[in-house]
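Retro notes (design track)

What went well: tokenization of the new backbones is finally stable.
What didn't: we kept losing track of which sequence belonged to which structure.
Fix going forward: every design gets posted as structure first, then sequence, in one message. First example under the new rule, 139 residues:
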């Protein structure tokens, strides 16, 4: 069989289908990096919402703060504070352009549901990124 000559170590690198390098700057961020960036953003949102609801806990107000922080920072800077802290950014389907508001809103809404972010493809890209044509990459 012709397939027997192929070496198993020559698997397709993560992100190759997107034209991204397998490692280094511009490569897809790992699941762990994305989880930590999400946790940093969620904590920041809870603290900001807590400033407005003190002495009560922010409850669902932290979701609103998370949505606002995420959408605004993705549209203006291409990365959330958590992404910036970890050296990540959101790759736009059209390089050198800002992320459109609709992509940021849809991506953030799906991310807030958590399940789409946990459903990943062979590259490790979450469903929320696949649906919006984006990817979280190393900066």
């Amino acid at each position: 069989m012709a397939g027997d000559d192929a070496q198993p170590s020559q698997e397709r690198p993560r992100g190759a289908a997107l034209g991204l390098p397998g490692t280094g700057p511009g490569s897809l961020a790992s699941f762990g990096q994305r989880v930590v960036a999400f946790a940093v953003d969620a904590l920041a949102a809870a603290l900001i919402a807590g400033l407005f609801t003190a002495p009560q806990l922010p409850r669902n107000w932290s979701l609103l703060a998370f949505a606002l922080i995420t959408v605004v920072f993705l549209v203006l800077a291409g990365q959330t504070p958590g992404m910036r802290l970890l050296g990540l950014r959101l790759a736009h389907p059209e390089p050198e352009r800002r992320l459109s508001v609709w992509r940021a809103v849809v991506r953030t809404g799906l991310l807030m549901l958590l399940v789409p972010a946990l459903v990943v493809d062979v590259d490790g890209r979450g469903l929320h990124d696949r649906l919006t044509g984006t990817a979280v990459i190393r900066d």
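Added context from the reviewer: The mean pLDDT is 88.
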